[in-house]
Sequence to fold (416 residues):
Amino acid sequence: MGAPLRAIDVVVIGAGHAGLAMSRCLSERGIDHVVLERGEIANSWRTERWDSLHLLTPNWQSRLPGFAYEGNDPDGFRTIPETVAYIDRYAKVIDAPVKTHTKVTSVQPVDTGYQVITEERAWSCRALVVASGACNIARVPSLAAAVPARISQLTPMQYRNPSQLDQGGVLIAGASATGTQLAHEIQLSGRPVTISVGEHIRMPRLYRDRDIQWWMDASGVMDERYDHVDDIVRARKVPSLQLTGSPQRMTLDLNSLTTIGVKLIGRLAGIGDGKVQFSGSLRNQCAMSDLKMNRLLDAIDTWATENGFDGKVPAPTRLEPTRVEDSPPLGMNLNSGEIRTIIWATGFRPDYSWLGVPVLDRKGYIRHDGGVVSSPGMYLMGMPFLRRRKSTLIDGAGDDARDLSAHLESYLAGRR
Ligand SMILES: Cc1cc2nc3c(=O)[nH]c(=O)nc-3n(C[C@H](O)[C@H](O)[C@H](O)COP(=O)(O)OP(=O)(O)OC[C@H]3O[C@@H](n4cnc5c(N)ncnc54)[C@H](O)[C@@H]3O)c2cc1C
Fold:
């Protein structure tokens, strides 16, 4: 530090798409603000994703305020360099006041609002928007500590491509979007994959000739509001859909994985003396996932009928139930040499180690009501189901930023 204090109405922390969408909405309202970013614009996409990742949302589904898709492949899926270029271009088009390489090291409440400390200077602001991301840290269960030392362990944030891994078996814990995508790629690289399956959400990529994301968007599923669902705590914990964005528009599910030779096991329950135990719930988890998928497809079919799509799109179909062997194994000896690497695809969490405002719950998440934080003048963006089901996606940031910037504007007006 050392440079003088700068006063500004609003500090936005993070220049991912969420912080930028908020910046655009603040500019539209003529609110003076700065966006502080520890790395480059779209830093998470540049530094924390694996090489082959494509967005699982189609190109048309990255609508940001004042910036819709205008290319000639609306149904394609962006690569990571394309995603970075897209977010970079958005920052330029909206002329966002971003200060890159400016890490926020502390935020404290003060009488006038907040004091935000970076490595170069301190900012004083009347309102604060935390858009620092939901996925800053990979979650690793505590049982990882009991894994024998000869087995390499890594998280999806460290994984780049299969050539990084020893030859030999790979155990992937977690069967949501990340776990299933990595299982597919690594199995095809010649390393036999075993995937540990807990709660997961199965989805067809294409349904009745349209992308599943199109159906969920058109039928209003993605717009469902946080204050209209029965159990928002549970809804915010729902795992990501088993989807991948491939040019072939393939459906990625446990059946497509077992077809190429991936082995399914239950959720990891414990590790001791080099032996790992799996939960016996694999068949139930798969049956439950099939049931939930079919329930969503039923709702889509009802919507399609009510909205005149029958006859214009193919008739409803259902995927074959998930195939699981009758008595899946309940344990494995990690000392046998079969498994050389474990990848923990067990989710992500945010990092608020720099946040000195007392707004965190017991689990370290910011307490908020649809993005309005309990500390006056503080707002949150980019968290799962923040205000709508789509909040976690690039496509969800626009509506959230519009709502929260309106709230923020009246908050500032009330304080004047
Ligand atoms: C593996 C993966 C795949 C995904 N695929 C899709 C997809 O296909 N489609 C989709 O719509 N969404 C997808 N998402 C979800 C979501 O769009 C991304 O997580 C997205 O990066 C979130 O945007 P954000 O702006 O909220 O956070 P981020 O992009 O993480 O941006 C937060 C920014 O804050 C900065 N920051 C953090 N701490 C500080 C600090 N202390 N000081 C200054 N700056 C800080 C970070 O450097 C970062 O640039 C995916 C997420 C993951 C993890």
Q: What stands out?
A: The pocket of flavin-adenine dinucleotide is lined by residues 13-19, 36-39, 43-44, 49, 55-57, 103-104, 131-135, 178, 348, 354, 382, 392-395 (CB under 6 Å). The first strand starts at residue 6 and ends at 13.
